Structures are given as C-alpha cells and as structure tokens.
Amino acid sequence: MTSYKIVCRDCPPDGDLPECPYLVMVGWDDDLDTYWGRVQDLRITSAKASNLLVEVGTEPHQLPSVHALQEAIDNHALIPDDVWGYLERDGRRDAPEPPSFSPALAGLGEPAEDDDDFEPREPVAAVALSDRVDAVLRDRRSSVVGAHGGVPGASALAEYRRQMRRHLSTAVPKVLMVVLGTFALAVIAFQFLPLLALAIAVGGAGLAWKAGRVPDRVSAWRRGARGERTTAKLLAPLERHGFTIFHDLNLPGGRVNIDHLVIGPTGIWTIDSKAWRNRTVVDKDGRLWRGRAPADHTVRIAWWEAEQVATLFSATGIDVGVNPVLVVHGTPLKALEAIADPGVRVIAPDYLAAVVSRPPATLWPNEAEAMVERVRVVFGLPARPRSSTDV
Questions:
Q1: Where is the domain boundary, 180, 195, 216?
Q2: Most exposed residue of 72, 127, 189, 335, measured as fewest CB within 10 angstroms of its CB?
Q3: What pLDDT shows up at residue 149?
Q4: In this structure, are 58 and 187 located in the same domain?
Q5: What is the maximal distance between C-alpha atoms in the chain?
C-alpha cells in the first residue's frame, strides 16, 4: 500500500504544505486492488464532529484508475503530475506495458472479424510487414487521404454502403413479392370474408417489414462511422498541445484499419472507436463484456493493431510501445477507465482526451517528430501536416 500527501485547492501554488487547511492523502491499495483517497478538514477539532470529508477506495476495485481517483476528490484537490506518475506506477494494472516491436507477432494470433472492423485477409508476419509496408500502403492510398490521414469513419461508412446495397438487392425483390402476393390474396378473400382479407393484409405488412428490415450487422457499420467522427472531435483539441492525430489508416496485408493514431508527448496511441448499445464492463479479472457476451475478439483486434503499428515504427530505431485503446460510445461504462487484459484501455468518450494527454511524458519532441514522419512516409501523406487554421 502506498500513500502520498498533496496540497488542497485552497492553498496557493507556492503555499507551505503543513499550513494547508485540509489533509489530502491518496494512494494505491494492493489488498483491495484499488486507488484510494481521503480528505480531512484540520480545522475541525471537536471530538463530537468528524473531520473526514471524503473517503473513497474502501472497497475492492472501487477506483480502477488515477482518473477515477481524481474525479472522486476533484472538489478538494488536484493530483500533481509527479504524484500522478507515481500512482500509475503503483497500480499494477493501471499502466500496462504496451505492445512493442517483436520479430514475431504471434502472441494472440490473427483476430476474428468484429462488428465494425475489417477482417485481415491473411496472417501478417512482422518481418514481411516491415519489408513491404511502404509499397503496399502507397498502392492502397485513398483519394481522400490528407495530411492527417483519411476522413474519420470513411472506411466504416463505405462498408455500410456496400453492405446496404447488397441487402437492398435481395430485400427489394422479396418485399415486392410479398406485397403483390398479399394484395392478390386480400382481393380474393375480400369477396368472401372481409375480415380474412384484413388479416391477410396485416400479416403481409409484417412479412414485408421483416423482409426489408436492415440487419443490425449492417447498421452497426453506420453507428461505427458516427462513433469515429465523434472520437475525432474529442481528440481534435489535443493538436494545440503538441499531438498529431491521424484517422482511418489502412494496414497492409488485410482490411483492418486504424481508426485513430495519436502521437505526442505522452507516447503513441491506437484508438479503436466502438458504438455499442449493450452494457459494457471490464470485470475484476480484466475481461471485457458486451452485455452478457465476452468481447475477447474486440480486445484481440485492438492489441493486434497496436502490435502492427509498433512494427511500423521499428524502423525509426526508437524503442517505444504503442498504447491500445477502446473508446465506447452509446452506452454508459461502469468505470471511466478500465484495463482489459492483456493491457487494452477501455475508456468513456468524455475521458478520452484526459487519458491520452495526462503525464508522465514518454516521448521527446524529436522522437515524436520521427514517429510522425514515419507515418507520413509509409502511408504516403503530405510532408507537412495542415493545422486546423489551414482548413
């Protein structure tokens, strides 16, 4: 168990800690596997009145991240950057080791198809990927690619339109057949039993609706595109703080694409946007659940994508990991931030920018620029990224 004393919000920036009117303590509890915080008002000295204003982190897994701890004590204190870094190191699962380059990326195998992710066509070995990445990516460059990669959600929206056209090509003839058949039967039945004709019409309408209804697996792509656009808007303010953000980048060797790639002072982040309707939680064992079904395949894809990006950056000679993130839209999360094994962060949308930008910093400016330049080269992007004022 660790503990740190921090200054309350009422103290001046250069105030002396012993003179603080509140005693604010934060830390990590190994036994309960949670962060904890306590705020006491030192001005209350009466034995009849408790001076304990806030006490959180008293139950197992109550505060799974430093962000959740800051939220709990936000009215009284702001966790300093150095203490924030100490806390992340103390938490056994709050700061997972991100994937980095390895000669063989066979740890989790090839991912299965997700509801708004493309399925890889073939296994992609690290050595083969490193050898042919430049040529493959340039061949697959889209006409809509700009300085910051593709348009957010463009691939998902294109897939939605493709599957929608396929659905309509089979659904429209079925609906026409049902409508014509229902009309013919209703006309015949009306001459003898009007109520039977009405029942046939109602039944035919139900069959027509069922035949023409858009399957959820198709509409999921449209929701996914909308989620990617929302994520892009949430990440945009980070560009003013030294971050470079790319969207919708296709990986070679398959149809998997990186929804968002963020490079900045706090490292490299691959962000996969999800638009789910089911309740989403990460249990105490680190398993992601989507409703009553485990979402292991989603976690595998997010981790696999980070491995592939780490492989692309191996040519820079900078040893750095890539942080995989799942940001989930459309459903409330039990925790603002949680870690799904083997180390994929599952984050609520409103907390995304805070998680990505929070210290400690891991990249020097020249290292970040080398990573950005590598992305521009292998994805065939313009040499100088446009700023928001250029658009």
A1: 216
A2: 127
A3: 59
A4: no
A5: 95
Same domain as 276, residue 166: no
The C-alpha atoms of residue 302 and residue 307 are separated, in whole angstroms, by 9
Residue 199 lies in domain: 158-216
Per-residue pLDDT at 382:
67
Residues in the chain with pLDDT values less than 50: 15, 94, 102-114, 118-147, 385-391
Q: Residue 55 corresponds to which tokens in the numbers above?
A: 């006490």
pTM for this structure? 0.67
Is there a contact between 235 and 258 (Cβ–Cβ < 8 Å)?
no
Structure tokens at 354: 């805070």
* Inter-CA distances, 339 with 22, 44, 100, 176, 189, Å: 32, 39, 18, 50, 62
Residue 113 counted as domain residue: no
- What is the number of structural domains in the chain? 3
Nearest partner of 353 among 372, 373, 374, 325, judged by Cα: 325
Domain membership of residue 99 (yes or no) is no
Q: Do 202 and 249 fall within a single domain?
A: no
Residues 231, 347 within the same domain? yes
Establish if 51 belongs to a structural domain.
yes
Report yes or no on 252 lying in a domain: yes
The domain boundary, picked from 167, 195, 216, lies at 216
Residue 19 pLDDT: 66
Single-letter amino acid code for the residue at 269: W
